[in-house]
Amino acid sequence: MLLNPVRKLLHSIDAITELLGKAVSWLTLLMVLLTFSIVVLRYGFNLGWIAMQESVLYFHGLVFMLGAAYTLKHDGHVRVDIFYQRYSVKQKAYLNLFGSLILLLPMCVFIFFISFNYVESSWQIMESSSEAGGLPLVYLNKSLILLLAVSLSLQGLAEIIRNLLTIFHPEADEHFIVEAK
Q1: What is the distance between the alpha carbons of residues 62 and 145, in angstroms, rounded to a whole number?
Q2: 57: closest CA among 76, 31, 77, 39?
Q3: Which of 45, 76, 137, 139 could form a disulfide with 122 if both were Cys (CB 3.0 to 4.6 A apart)?
């Protein structure tokens, strides 16, 4: 039956997104501890390092760029719920399917292609910080833009599959769809 490979694909994408989300949650803790250390060192001991401050920006980028797909998976993105909250499960699935196909995936493809040359040029010159003592990893930080587009596209694909299953096979996949959310 065609549903089994589709379920496996959905499960695989969700597992990758969950793994990224868990990693990002630990990075958030590390970012908070690092920020606290920077403040204590600066105001308590009058010490500071540009690289340490830039690393917080890198963690911030990692958290937001890699956490976007996890947020989508757990339906945590901002939406106007005036009408949505009153919709049936099937109506919500139609709306989410439309949003993913017409808004999310095209935007992810656009972000990927518009950013590719930008990231590629950064890699070609192995771009580093313009600040003295800064991190020499700007090209890695810029690569997060492409990772955002890829991870969000994959999770968008999973959401499309989940919504199609909700629309066309609600009885067969109700447990799996609800469990994945």
Answers
A1: 10
A2: 31
A3: 139
